[in-house]
Amino acid sequence: MKFLIVVFFVCIALLLLNNCDSTDPKLEPELALELKDVSCTETWLQLTTTNIQLPATINLLKNNSVTQTFSLSTQDSLIYIDSLLPNQSYSFQASSIQNPVSSNKVTTTTLDTTSHNFTWQTFEFGDIGAGSSLIYDVAIINENDIWAVGEIYMNDSLGNPDPNAYNAVHWNGQSWELKRIMFYTFCPQGPGEGSYPASSIFAFDNENIVISSGSQIAYIKNGIQIKKECVPVSVNKILGASLNDFYIVGYGGGIARYNGSSWTKIESGTTLGLSDVFGNETSAIYACGGNLNTGQGIILKINSNNTVSKIIDSYYYGTGFDSTKMFEDNLYGPLVGIWVAENGNIYTVGNLIYRFNKIKWDYAKGIEYNYLGAGEFSGRGFLWDVSGTANNDFFFVGQRNTIRHFNGINAIQLGEPFSYTSEYSWLSVDYKINVAVTVGRKGGNAAINIFKR
């Protein structure tokens, strides 16, 4: 009898154990696809795997047809698809060859192209015989409030050259007003002052502007200069979120950050001059620069903790350039202008215009003759600056009257025609929605273009 009771309980225990096993979750393979970004001709998808042995072979379907087959070696991967058409709807789905599983289907519509239809006005500043004038930088607050800085030499009321240059001009929607922003003759803090050439400008809002000259910063509020100060960097460019948090970059790899009360000099790890800095609310802050004589260039990432990481180097032939490592370890030529789109794509210019598209460096797409071996400066001049509102709406400018607008699929010349013999050289461009301003020189005069769409 006792034996029967023991057997009974053993049977019950086995049944309970089997019942528990039957409710254990099964480790089913899963694929998840997420849309990360889209442009006129490209899209970026995030693929996440669960319970799939890696490496795995994945098919990517576009509109229900296989468009890519690749080996996946990480649990999460960013997939890049190009050669799409503007303003078209697409569906994407991923499937595993080794496992009978498919992801969710993702649908998206590519961006439409933007219009190249701009009107423009050209303005020149400077008097013959007074000195060689040019404008280095510009900041658009709105179409009726634009500031530009440089050095403009005029004759006095008697027709004689005035040795005191104007170093700023302001557009009020109808006309330009020449201005003199005052800086110390020597740092730190004097003695003496003068309207010395101004190299850069940044507008935080419609009230607060900062302008640089050498290793000094001048503060402008509501159009009136309120103070000036010496800073730890000879400044080429300014970038910031507010007067209580902004950066300056300049010669000798100089970087410094202002916190509203004091400056912190940041070790950059390079002695190359830094000519530009850019970032936005959704991206990191990047600086670029180089040496025009040696052809060296560099891009740096400025981290929020005041440290700096090198992103990529750039060289001319014979100075370190390795064509087999193009877009991996190096680019070609000095890098003098940089802009970051809202989606984090990085654009930089010099001999060519390059783009980092979240995954890798490459030549910026849709730009004629924009590749090494096409002939130096084919159809355009050396590029000095780039600025935009989106991946399908940006300007790049340079020598020989190069002013190009990219609309998502191609770039065209705006304003006067490009010419190898043109006296126009455009050093900087700022672009807000539907309004772009280019600044530089024409021969011995300073020059400005205002473009409106």
Can you describe this structure?
The protein has about 450 residues and is mainly β. It has 2 domains: about 30-110, Immunoglobulins (Immunoglobulin-like, Sandwich), CATH 2.60.40; about 120-450, YVTN repeat-like/Quinoprotein amine dehydrogenase (Methylamine Dehydrogenase, Chain H), CATH 2.130.10. Helix content is about 5%, strand content about 50%. It has 1 helix and 39 strands. The protein has one helix at about 1-20; strands spanning about 30-40, 45-50, 55-60, 65-70, 75-80, 90-95, 100, 105-110, 120-125, 135-140, 145-150, 165-170, 175-180, 185, 195, 200-205, 210-215, 215-220, 225-230, 235-240, 245-250, 255-260, 265, 275-280, 285-290, 295-300, 310-315, 330, 335-340, 345-350, 355, 360-365, 385-390, 395-400, 400-405, 410-415, 425-430, 435-440, 445-450. The strands form 10 sheets. Strands 3, 4, 6, 7 and 8 form a 5-stranded antiparallel beta sheet that branches. A hairpin with a 4-residue loop joins β1 (about 30-40) and β2. It is elongated, with a radius of gyration of 29 Å. The chain starts with a helix and ends with a strand.
